[in-house]
Write a structure and sequence with these properties.
This protein is an alpha+beta fold. It contains three helices and five strands, in the order H-H-H-E-E-E-E-E. The chain folds into two domains: about 55 residues, no CATH class; about 45 residues, no CATH class. The chain is about 35% helix and about 15% strand. Strand 3 and strand 4 form a beta hairpin. Helix 1 crosses helix 2. The radius of gyration is 18 Å and the shape is extended.
């Protein structure tokens, strides 16, 4: 969402609203119906996610750790892994910093041979 918003010079909320409405129209034309079709910004969704994450943090499967992040001197902000592109250390193909779309490897951006930072 953030990448598309930057490409279109819009806010993530504007892009989200646009596609939510477009999907609603497509679903209606196709005859789909949903009991609930909301956005991740809805209060119900936020409450569900909060409760879900609280349960995860109570388990042994989620833990905190420190991890390096790419910082953009131009924007004065830390960048999401998805904004970092480079060469996958597993298959050698071009990829983004969170997951290689070619081989499916989950990545840490600091392991990439960084080629560009998309902002």
């Amino acid at each position: 969402m953030t990448i598309r918003a930057k490409q279109e010079n819009k806010t993530p909320l504007e892009v989200s609203n646009y596609y939510h409405e477009e999907f609603n129209e497509c679903f209606k034309k196709l005859g789909f119906s949903y009991d609930v079709y909301t956005k991740t910004s809805s209060e119900d969704h936020k409450q569900f996610v909060k409760e879900f994450h609280e349960k995860l943090y109570e388990s042994a499967y989620v833990y905190e750790k420190e991890a390096p992040q790419v910082y953009c001197d131009h924007c004065h902000t830390f960048l999401a892994d998805r904004f970092v592109t480079g060469k996958c250390p597993e298959c050698g193909k071009g990829t983004r910093g969170d997951q290689c779309d070619s081989c499916g490897t989950v990545l840490e951006p600091e392991l990439l041979e960084i080629q560009t930072i998309f902002i």
